Amino acid sequence: MSEAARVLRLLTEREQTLAVAESLTGGLVAAELTSVPGASHAFRGSVTAYATALKHTVLGVDGALLDQRGAVDPDVALQMAAGVREALGASWGIATTGVAGPEPQDGKPVGTVYVSAVGPAGSNKTLALRLNGDRAEIRKESVRSVLELLSSELRKAGRAQDTEQNGGI
Fold first, then answer.
1. Phi, psi at residue 44, to the nearest 5°?
2. Is residue 134 in some structural domain?
3. Is the pLDDT of residue 159 over 80?
4. What is the rounded CA–CA span in Å between residue 147 and residue 105?
5. Helix, strand, or coil here: 158?
6. Cys-Cys with 116: which of 17, 27, 98, 126 at CB 3.0–4.6 Å?
7. Range of 153's domain?
8. Is 46 within the bounds of a domain?
């Protein structure tokens, strides 16, 4: 089973939904998710905010943060995930931002990537990645990484919910 299928199964079992904000991946995360039959049970949609200005105007990323640190930043990734979650009315939001190359961006080297997942009950996590390879490989690995992050967060949230339901055992 693919990571996308695993994530969608977990979301569907929990009657939760997902929204995606993408920058360097340019829609590849959404494409991976929608390649799974039945994805519409959990996948709400995506925003490809490739231009920095869209991260602010569409996803609600703090403009001062973008001005100070640029679009390739862990806090930007987190705000993108939170923003798409809110904008599309989903249980979970995930985001990708980074430098796929061939040139550095905002003073960040090629292969610098941040992926985030934001969910219910204050659940949020951002990973900093330093990826090797060409543009296509960096983008592909970014897709895999954000889906693995979400899968991990979903499993963690599920364990916490099970513990709560079983009286804290």
1. -85, -40
2. yes
3. no
4. 24
5. helix
6. 126
7. 3-164
8. yes
Residue 139 has pLDDT above 60, yes or no: yes
pLDDT of residue 162: 57
Radius of gyration of the chain (CA): 16
| Number of domains comprising the chain | 1
Instruction: Residue 133: name the closest of 125, 124, 144, 122 by CA.
Output: 144
Q: Which two tokens stand for residue 117?
A: 């997942």
pLDDT of residue 158: 78
Looking at residue 129, its pLDDT comes to: 98
DSSP, res 121: G
CATH number at residue 42: 3.90.950.20
Q: What is the H or E stretch that residue 128 is in?
A: strand 124-130
Say if 169 falls within a structural domain.
no
Phi, then psi, of 49 in degrees rounded to 5: -100, 75
Render pLDDT for 78-136 as a digit per residue (tens, 0 to 9). 999 999 999 999 999 999 999 999 999 989 999 999 999 999 988 999 999 999 999 99
Q: What does the block give as tokens for 49?
A: 């905010």
Question: Distance between CA 7 and CA 24 in Å, rounded?
Answer: 21
Report the pLDDT value the prediction gives residue 15, as an integer from 0 to 100. 97
Element (H, E) at 13: helix 3-13
